[in-house]
Give the backbone structure.
Amino acid sequence: MSDNETKHTIEGVDKLKELVEAIRICLFSTKLKTQDGATTRPMSAVKVCDKGNIYFFNQKDSDKNKEIEEDPKVQLFFSHPAKGSYLVVNGTASITTDRKKIEELWNPAVEIWFEKGKDDPNISIIKVTPSSAYFWDTDGNQMINILKMAASFVTGTNLVSGSEGEIVI
């Protein structure tokens, strides 16, 4: 970020939706008090609802679900280096096997993980309700920013701009 960076608070879920939908894959961390990294796994967000809840499909009998049942506090780390976009979400996870919710969120990409399709008995949905979120977002794409960094080095003036701030949900 440059001297032009802005630190601010964004009300609502629009920024959260924008970043999650652009990045999709996050590192999903459970067992926050005791974890050593072994409880952090890549997962793909399926949807962000109008309330800011983030949904994931998962196997009902997975270690991730067992960890959430023991302690529902989670952290999600979204990163898109090519766009210079980053997001961390702290929240509480809950697990459901509600068939209506599975039907609502189902998409063909999910079928890779569930051999019997949306009727697979091992499907569950993790809902993360955010308690806080923080983002970093660099203006422009990676190639433009590389050129801006080179120009900044030559001129002695930081030309890379962006913003960061808290997202209030």
In short: Residues 1-7, 142-153 have pLDDT under 50 and may be disordered. The chain has one domain: 11-139+164-168. The helical segments are 14-23, 63-70, 99-105, 142-155.
